[in-house]
Amino acid sequence: MDLIKVICGMLAVAFLLGIFTCGSHNDRAAVAEEFKNETLGEPTPGVTGESLASEENTTVEQANQGPAPPDSLILAKGESKMATERRNIEYKVRATARLVEAQGEKLFPSFREPKSPWYNGDFYVFVWAMNGTQVVYPPDREREGENMSGLLDAEGKPIGKLFIEAVRSESGEGWVDYSWKESESSEPAHRFTFVKKATFEGRAYLVGSSFYSDDYILCKNLTECPYLEEPGNIRVAEMLNPEDTDKNLDLNYSIAHSVIEPGENIAPHMMKNPEVHYILEGEGILYIDGIPVELQPDQLIYIPAGAIQTTYNTGNITLKFLAIDQPGWSEKNTEVFE
């Protein structure tokens, strides 16, 4: 009899330990591994363009979004970094929704952990209740509990309402695009959010994540590209140079916006690499090894490597052009003749 009591006691302790350790680190690690297995950087094996297209067709139509995007089958075939990021957002949100439907709220602490599959750098997954209450918001946990159903974008678009409408639709998911400001002082950026419904034991949630298309805009406007005074009374704003950006660009050329005022000229100089000038506005003369080329808007002029060049503004308005160098411009590849 005593032996039976001991065995029963041990079973009871084991049962209680099982309850209190169900949200342990090891358990969350297992869930994270499951999430990774659900998340793909490339289209899922066996998932064809047609099946992806059918998923695209389930998104909610939003009013006043401008021209319709290309056919969803075309979108599904995209192989760029942006296309992969878009698909990854969908995969991650859908995988998270499946995990929530299987295991419920006990996963939410894992979603808030930095450097986890759900919150890493600028990427995070958020969770709302269906009434708009923010349940999981990793970047700022103090905002959890706020009702976001009345959330507006920078232009007054009711994105909180649109998120909820998307997951209440027949498909239970959808994309919403909008203009978003990260802070009061920041410029609005174009943001895309994918949301999906997840239900656990009768409680429904909205799971979502986002990315910015503005991440692919290298120069929003020339005010972000400070002009440098160059010899010969020319001002140059470097719009793109792979050597001077923190973005991983598969490019080997640079683009500069050049300005010459009326009556001024660039000092004669020689580039060790070829260069192309695209004339934006104004008139002038470009000398290539002493040979004059008259400049007018919309012209594209090739300057061979090793040629001595100088440009004069012969008009009455500012001469503006783009200078494109391959490889990207560097001071060591330029020799100026004063």
Automatic annotation (TrEMBL):
Predominant location: membrane
Record's compositionally biased regions (Polar residues): 54-65
CDD domains: cupin_MJ1618
InterPro entries in the cross-refs: Cupin_2, PKS_Associated_Protein, RmlC-like_jellyroll, RmlC_Cupin_sf, sCache_2
Keywords, alphabetical: Cell membrane, Membrane, Transmembrane, Transmembrane helix
Bilayer topology annotation: Multi-pass membrane protein
Compartments where found: Cell membrane
GO cellular component: plasma membrane
Domain Cupin type-2: 258-324
Domain Single Cache: 120-215
Residue segments, region Disordered: 39-76
UniProt xrefs under PANTHER family: 16.7 KDA PROTEIN IN WHIE LOCUS (PTHR36114:SF1)
Protein name, UniProt field: Uncharacterized protein
